[in-house]
Amino acid sequence: MNAPAHIKKSAHTANPAEHLALLATDDMKDVNAIILERMQSPVGMIPDLAQHLVEAGGKRLRPLLTIACAHLCGGVETAHQKLAAAVEFIHSATLLHDDVIDESDLRRGQKVANRIWGNSASILVGDFLFARAFNLMVETGSLTALDILSTASSIIAEGEVHQLAALRKVDMPEETYMHVIGAKTAALFAAACEVSPVISDRPDSEKEALRRYGQNLGIAFQLVDDALDYGGFESALGKSVGDDFREGKLTLPVIRAIAKADEDELAFWTKVIADHKQDETDLEKAVSILRRTGSLDATIELARHYSSQARQTLEIFAPSEWRSTLEELSDYVVDRVS
Description:
Elements: H1 16-23, H2 25-38, H3 45-54, H4 61-72, H5 78-102, E1 106-107, E2 110-111, H6 113-117, H7 119-139, H8 143-165, H9 174-199, H10 204-228, H11 234-237, H12 243-247, H13 252-259, H14 263-274, H15 282-292, H16 295-313, H17 321-335
Antiparallel strand pairs: 1-2
Helix pairs in contact: 1-17, 2-5, 3-7, 4-5, 4-9, 5-7, 5-8, 5-9, 8-9, 9-10, 10-16, 13-16, 16-17
């Protein structure tokens, strides 16, 4: 799964996400100040738990996209910064809820919040962060931005419920899987990008282009994450390798492998996914099947398709360092598997 030869590294850094963060340093200082201010509460557990999640790291990719798209549309206003903070709060809230549902142990190398403070506290603080996000949306005075982010929040929740309903079902169609990742992951990427031209009062063509950029980028991002779960590095993934397998989640690599399975392999997938009976050697066997059937490579190839689609949507914007870095970022979400 080496990166394709046509992918070019940024002249500034091998990681376009890091270059984007450098470009947006001043804006992100303001965004981070808003995040720090709005996660405060006289109820001590709330800022403690929220800060644990915030300090766990990550590149703040979603709010960075909001800021980058604002620059692409003419410049950053305070409203953009507030919406970037709202996007991060929505993302953080979903992580808190996901870790409870998934019974995860680690998030970016640190113990997940619910292992420290308990499930109830994590869920309630997640709700608090959602509420803070909506406070920030209202403060911008843009009903359109509020509609975009509130709709994305409901779509994310629907995607999570859909995934939960499909848990451990070895007959889940590929179409269902694509719908789930389009909702639970790509919807927030799309909204994070689309709200910037809304605040900047840009033409509908630019709003649609950035919405599609975020949507395609988000799908590519999730496809790569799902492939990395079967052989990536935890530093690239942000969670423990094999989590999806242990939780009985059907992701595209497994769906593609099941489609090619013989009788013995179908029995294996039924045992480890549907029946959820796993031993220490099963993950290694699963990876072996996925590699032999080409399912991991096929997943990366599909991610490359969506990455290319994301890049193409930016062609309506004038050439700039912001545009070129966003183009490189669309390649990098696939390139990180190498």
